[in-house]
């Protein structure tokens, strides 16, 4: 089990329980699989450097495991839908990278 120590949390947090991270100035709101969240005094940049998640917006990092759908519209806009039906926009400058990173993960299995 991979864990991460979050400032203000007495116990390490299982990384697989984190669905997405939302930046709020120098704080980060950590959204968990069970629908709860916590606010920690670590900026998104710290998480970007320590987790194998995908930055899709200046204020959002997602765990690709929990992406249900990715929409890429005319190369100018896009969004992801997470398992809790939350839709998060993907910024234009991160669209191409997001589409590459999510393409293989969201491909339907080849049924022959």
UniProtKB/TrEMBL annotation:
Residues 12-104 form the HTH LytTR-type domain. Pfam families: LytTR (PF04397). Keywords: DNA-binding. One of its GO terms (molecular function) is DNA binding. InterPro entries: LytTR_DNA-bd_dom. Coiled coil: none annotated. This is LytTr DNA-binding domain-containing protein. It comes from Spirosoma endophyticum.
């Amino acid at each position: 089990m991979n864990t991460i120590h979050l400032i203000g949390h007495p116990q390490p947090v299982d990384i697989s329980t984190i669905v997405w991270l939302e930046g709020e100035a120098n704080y980060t709101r950590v959204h968990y699989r069970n629908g709860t969240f916590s606010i920690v005094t670590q900026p998104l940049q710290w998480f970007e450097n320590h987790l194998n998640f995908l930055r899709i917006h200046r204020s959002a990092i997602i765990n690709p495991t929990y992406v249900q759908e990715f929409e890429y519209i005319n190369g100018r806009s896009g969004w992801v839908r997470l398992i809790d039906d939350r839709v998060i926009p993907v910024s234009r400058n991160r669209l191409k990278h997001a589409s590459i990173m999510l393409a293989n993960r969201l491909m339907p299995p080849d049924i022959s």
